[in-house]
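User:
Note these tokens:
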Amino acid sequence: MTIPLNGSAHDVEVPPRPKDVGILAMEMYFPTRCISQEELEEFDGVAKGKYTIGLGQKFMATCDDREDINTFLLTVTHNLLEKYNIDPKSIGRIDVGTETAVDLSKASKTFLMDLFASHGNTDVEGVDSKNACYGSTAALFNAVNWVESSSWDGRNALVVCGDIAIYAEGSGRPSGGAGACAMLIGPNAPLVLEPIHGTHMVHAYDFYKPKLDSEYPEVDGPLSITSYTSAIDAAYSAFKKKHALKAKKSGSEAPPFSLDDVDYPVFHSPYGKMVQKAHGRLVYNDFLANPTHPKYASIQNTAALLAQDYKESLLDKTLEKTFINLAKSHFDSHVELGMKCSRRCGNMYTGSLYGGLASLVSSVEPSEFLGKRISMFAYGSGLASSFFTIKVKGDTSEIKNKLDLVKRLAAMKVVPCQEYVDALKLREESHLSKTWKPQGSVDNIWPGGYYVESVDGKYRRQYLRKPKEVAVAA
């Protein structure tokens, strides 16, 4: 399919008001290499199952000093344009979400402009959005709002997001990963963003990056868990209140919104076990709203659960296990469909939630997907969160086929854990360096992928694209 050019920057005719604005196309990027979390347990000398069961992790992507966030974003954007034959002049806005900045002033979006300026298109709105893993959702909302606004000039938008999630040696390291996502945003989309957003934002020091001389974050593990949990409670509650208000205004007598109105829940995934907890927590929220529903008949001590102090509920392991177990069948059959990227690549920070969406699109047959509703929970430490929904209103066959996600994830090479440690060492040594040439091998870059060629004496980075493989005639 060729994505149509919906006007241009120089059209004087006002385009018709857009309908069904959402995601027209998607592309994922991840490094060529990953490590096994099971092998990492042995490598780190920890108890068997600590990472694979305790964190719910399987593999984790890795890259060295040949890649940075700009190479990720350049690669995923260029591949999206090529796979869908998108005219660069048809793009009027680019919003980037990332927390892996290589410059405190210059937006990563500006590096992407080489792909558009070379085609004569420099009239492109948007810059970077930053707040931990939430920047991608802020970017998506910005892009959709632009298309739906009176400022829209008829062209489509791009949302590009991704990160390199790495941690200092210690308990946080297994929750790393890497990856990026690019999405084409416009009207008449198969994946339509519905207008209600439930958002929760407060100040918290659960995860942050105050050390400019290091890529590694500061993490308060226990606070991270309770912050995520309280955020899903508050964002879901805000969503349900807005949903009820809209229904009241329209005169609808539909029952209050619950997970029964969702076919496939997708969550930001810092690690697999947190997604299980989040899903169980949504079920807990629905239970509190309607505890006498027959589906909760197996729950013991209902009165005690209803009377429990809220702060205590955030730390109650028995409560957590109760609702994880109650939701397990639904998790295995529906939520797990959105976990393919996170299981293989680990945490992609801003790319995580949309890697989940790409995984879901790649897992469900388009004929079965049509008409379904997807819930999305976005979370970024510090903290920012939103609960919103996407309605499948069109054929997702082309997105599924062009992502080719399952095959591409399987093609990642599982390397020894020492190779991961060595890659991080190269990144540590080169951080903030100038007059520098990366030491990592270009052999570890996918064909068609961008890589860092050099950094000059003024810290200016030069990027090259690895040639695509040429088919050899039989």
In short: Confidence is low (pLDDT under 50) at residues 1-9. The two ends are 29 Å apart (CA to CA).
